[in-house]
Amino acid sequence: MKLPRKKMTASIPSAAMGDIGFLLLIFFVILARAQDDSHVRWQPAKLKEVEMVASPLASVTIDTGFKTYLDGKTISTDELAGALSQILGDAPAGKRYVFLKVHKEAKATHFEPVIAAISEAGGDLVHILEAENISSTQ
Amino acid sequence: MKLQRGKFLVDPPASASSDIAFILIIFFLVCAAVQPETGIAQILPKTEEKTDKRDQSKNIEVSITPSSIVLNGSPLKLPEFSRRLTSALSRKTRDADRIVTVKSSPDTPYPIWIKVSQAIERAGGIITLELESDRVISVE
Q1: Is the pTM above the cut of 0.80?
Q2: Residue span of the structural domain in which A122 resides
């Protein structure tokens, strides 16, 4: 006697589709943040009247230990100009944004060579700063 | 006669609550991570080696140290510095005359430097950094 095999149907619950889509969206949002330097420790200086800034092609950070990072990777100031030139490529002027994140305790010896390197690479320098509270200045 | 309405109690499945919590955590983490950044932009023409001292005597000179801002030899506080610089630059019409040479001592803190830099830009000056290695950077 031949026993009929029971048909197994595996269906994806349609209720989960929204969750799956949402998780995929978050996944790609995180991936899109190519220049992830969130692991670099630094504190921004405060300044009155700062503006929202456009997204950069590269990000240079001077951390709490006064080390220089390009897009989250350690780099010497001598190599910085060359590496930046490669990243900026043929991008037109006005769109060659380079974010400069300088730890508030850094001195001129730390940040001036970095500014010189950004200048040498032809980058449009944007100092990343924190808005100063008016109440805290009084 | 009053008809009794049947109660429909729909409990969310308890097994889904951990998924919901996880998704909420990720959502708020991503929101915190992609906060827009604020700052100030500066246009930097390419660095050039300073070979000659052309028109240097005409330029306004600013020296920054941790404790003082010196404008053409006079030490000033930041508000007074801004006033005097604005007044000095208001008489100048050509770009070449609005160049402000900034020389910082090696131990100048970044917050002071950026405040002076902003004051110069607001006064209409074109910043030129004089580095120790004799490189000159113009900042518009």
Answers
A1: no
A2: 46-137
**pLDDT at res. A138:** 42
Q: Between chain A and chain B, how many beta carbons pairs sit less than 8 Å apart?
A: 118
Edge to edge, the sheet with strand B74-76 lists B48-49, B135-139, B126-130, B99-104, B60-64, B69-71, B74-76
ipTM of the complex: 0.72
pLDDT at A25 over 70: yes
**Site from B110, B120, B138, B140 to mutate, A interface, most A CB atoms within 10 angstroms:** B110
Residues with pLDDT less than 70, chain B? 1-8, 33-34, 43-57, 132-140
Contact assignment for A52 to B23 by CB distance below 8 Å: no
> Tokens for B91?
């008489």
All structural domains of chain B: 48-139 (3.30.420.270)
In degrees rounded to 5, what are phi and psi of residue B95?
-60, -40
Instruction: Say if the Cβ atoms of B39 and A33 lie within 8 Å.
Output: no
Query: Tens digit of pLDDT for each residue in A65-86?
Result: 999 999 888 999 899 999 999 9
Q: CB–CB of B30 and A26 under 8 A? A: yes
> Domain for residue A126, yes or no?
yes
In a domain, A4, yes or no: no
pLDDT at A40: 85
Residue A57 belongs to a domain:
yes
Q: How many domains does chain A have?
A: 1
Residue A57 vs residues B46, B73, B126: alpha-carbon distances, Å: 17, 40, 25
Q: How far is A3 from chain B (nearest CA, A)?
A: 37
Answer whether residue A84 is part of any domain.
Answer: yes
- Is some CB atom of chain B closer than 8 A to the CB atom of A103? yes
Nearest CB to A108; choose among B39, B47, B104? B104
Nearest-angstrom CA–CA distance, B127 and A112: 13
